[in-house]
Amino acid sequence: MKRSIFFVYLVFLVVSNLSAQNWDVNTVHQINSWDGKFIRNYNKVISRSEPYVAVGVPVAMVVAAWIRHDKDLLKDAVYVGTSVAGAFVVTYGMKYLVDRERPYDKYPDRIHPYSRESSPSFPSGHTATAFALATSLSVKYPKWYVIAPSALWACSVGVSRMNEGVHYPSDVLAGAAIGAGCAVLNIYVNRWLNKWLFGD
Questions:
Q1: Taking CA atoms, which of 10, 32, 119, 197 is between 20 and 30 Å from 127?
Q2: Whole-structure pTM value
């Protein structure tokens, strides 16, 4: 009886894994095949905007805080910047631990690479830092005009990475969870950091 239960459980795990893998491949194949001119250009711009926006926003906050001698804005900039940096470190550490092949390498007959990356696939670093930025900005400035555009941009980054053919949906979902998680965890880390940097 125990052997029968174990066998059924083993078959269930194998079938679930295959089903999840099929969903992952089928979804990236479908999104990668969106090749209308507007969609392709939009996704290309959004995908390439990520490093500039993720780094540029906290840097711009620091510059504005320095010009205005605004200590509170500087604290917010440190929180946003360290959230993005934390997400970057976690995702790139995980990439080389998991070492997942890019979808265009594993399925060259189904996925067209509109761009190529040298690092492993899982999780999506672009998505992680985009969600870290969007979440940290939303925590510090909980207004609809901050939350809505930052969430739209972060989600667009995730979709664009699949449209480019460089990530599976599971890469993107994991990146989003890591980015948002780093921003939330960083609320507590920054309480200690503020005491160390600013004495309060």
A1: 197
A2: 0.86
